[in-house]
Design goal:
Strands 8, 9, 10, 11 and 12 form a 5-stranded antiparallel beta sheet that branches. Helix content is 44%, strand content 16%. It folds into 3 domains: 280 residues, no CATH class; 70 residues, no CATH class; 39 residues, no CATH class. The chain has 505 residues and is of the alpha+beta class. The longest helix is centred in the last third of the chain and has 32 residues.
Length: 505
């Protein structure tokens, strides 16, 4: 079975658009539920004396390679040690945005955006309650964006089906016995207001009615409070970019079924089928014979004078299939730009550069995600937060105070993917000292290179601190004293070596 056949079995609402159906099917692959609609477990081979094809059975082993690669890339893009440093012309703006990053837990939000957006797109909704901001990730299969000629959002419409019991939970009155009935739920965001509609029956052709109580007054922001992200692609008129893992789904399906077959074969080796001679039997196990389920407890009875044997597979076939699976796994990871290195083959600690080379394909994927979700989504989100501070009367609330922010000079500075080891830092420092003494590199450039390599938050700030220490007479006196003491110790050590050599001679 391939992806084209499997996606027809994934249950999606038929009332939604073709785009939404495609994204929902890809979401099932991402969430690991793509086989759930198949009717039979993998261990069930017969149903009412009819053989069940493999395409109707759920694999007993699921590799989830698509999700693993996306999660690894998300961690490498917005993980705890990979979050970018924000640079801005205004120090107050930079400090306020850093506080908002902590309050809104933006690293976790952006990682969720990478995971949800791997199917093609992601949407970040920014809301303000009493001046305090919150950022959440929306499911784009149910969102329909409208863009202007410049690619800016004009409006975003969210519409999806909910059950009657959910409508009742929202506080709406519905007829008795309608808990299982489908209702449409609709919400719209425009440049001037956010509209919520009263749920209506999915079978009704009437126009939806705006819920004025839940919609609230017009926000008057002048922009749609949503950041739309096209996965692994620049902004454009098409709402979705390419799916991160779609090209590898066929190979993943093949691998899951092969691994399931290996498990099935190993169980047969542990309890092989017994074939014996008898009267009144038939090769299919019909008549009074039990259905063939596997194992000696359900032996097939054959006609008289027939031979008897154990039906079992050769042990070497399991190894062959596992080798085939390893090739499939390598192919999937190559298609997805995943990490093909095996942790059990790393015998010692690796340097940062060695780790980067070992995970080069995953680093390339993370580079593309930094462009889409970092330089695109995160910077746009910071600029929107600054626009919120100007549009809301009195500004937004940050650390208990109302502030307005200026987005001039906003930029991101990314840390290295893998931290340098102590040996690498020592070699770099010695090389930079040699370059500065040789007159081919300035002290400021050397400081910036060293700070960036060691993961310093802001190389420019580090250089300012270095300059301040160079002008501090107390610190310089202490350094000169330490240098003189070190020189004296080296001289004494050198004399001792000379005397020892003379005595020995």
């Amino acid at each position: 079975m391939d992806w084209q056949e499997l996606q027809e079995t994934i249950l999606v609402p038929q009332q939604v658009s073709a785009r939404a159906q495609r994204l929902l099917r890809l979401s099932a692959v991402r969430d690991g539920t793509m086989y759930d609609a198949l009717p039979y477990p993998f261990s069930k081979e017969w149903n009412n004396d009819e053989y069940i094809p493999l395409s109707q059975r759920r694999p007993s082993v699921r590799s989830h390679l698509c999700t693993v690669v996306v999660e690894d890339a998300a961690s490498l893009t917005f993980g705890e040690t990979h979050w970018p440093t924000l640079k801005c012309d205004s120090p107050d703006t930079a400090e306020a945005l850093s506080s908002i990053t902590r309050e809104c837990q933006l690293p976790a939000v952006l990682m969720e955006a990478v995971l949800k957006g791997s199917i093609g797109s992601a949407a970040l909704l920014v809301e303000a309650v009493d001046g305090a901001l919150s950022v959440s990730v929306l499911d784009t299969p149910y969102l329909e964006p409208e863009l202007d000629a410049k690619g800016d959002l004009v409006q975003v419409v969210s519409q999806y089906l909910i059950k009657g019991r959910q409508v009742r939970a929202l506080g709406y009155a519905i007829p008795e016995g309608s808990d299982a009935v489908d209702y449409w739920y609709r919400r719209e965001w425009t440049r001037t207001e956010s509209r919520v509609y009263k749920p209506w029956l999915a079978t009704s052709d009437a126009d939806p009615e705006v819920d004025t109580e839940r919609s609230g007054p017009p926000h008057g922001l002048g922009f749609v409070p949503i950041v739309w992200v096209r996965n692994l692609a620049p902004p454009g008129q098409d709402p979705d970019g390419p799916c991160t893992f779609e090209r590898a789904i066929d190979t993943v399906i093949e691998g899951d079924y092969q691994l399931s077959q290996v498990g099935r074969g190993l169980k047969y080796c542990s309890d092989p089928k017994l074939v014996i001679t008898g009267v009144g039997g038939d090769p299919a196990g019909g008549g009074d014979a039990p259905a063939s389920e596997g194992g000696s407890a359900t032996a097939i009875v054959l006609p008289e004078k027939a031979s008897a044997k154990m039906l079992e597979i050769n042990g070497s076939s399991a190894g062959t299939v596992m080798e085939y699976w390893r090739e499939l796994r390598a192919l999937v990871l190559e298609i997805l730009h995943g990490n093909r290195a095996h942790a059990d083959k790393i015998s010692a600690a690796q340097s940062g550069r060695a780790m980067e080379m070992m995970c080069q394909s995953l680093v390339w994927l993370a580079d593309r995600m930094r462009l889409s979700y970092g330089e695109g989504a995160l910077l746009s989100l910071y600029r929107m937060i600054c626009d919120f501070s100007l549009a809301i009367e009195g500004g937004i609330q940050v650390d208990g105070e109302r502030v307005t922010l200026d987005d001039a000079g906003l930029a991101l500075e990314w840390p290295p993917y893998f931290s340098a080891t102590d040996g690498e830092i020592l070699q770099l420092s010695q090389a930079l000292v040699t370059a500065v003494k040789g007159g081919i590199l300035s002290n400021e450039s050397a400081c910036s290179i060293f700070a960036a390599k060691t993961g310093c938050a802001d190389p420019a700030t580090e250089w300012e601190r270095v300059q301040a220490e160079l002008q501090d007479p107390t610190i310089q006196a202490a350094r000169n004293a330490d240098a003189a003491a070190t020189k004296a110790v080296r001289a004494a050590a050198g004399v001792g070596k000379t005397e020892t050599h003379q005595v020995t001679a």
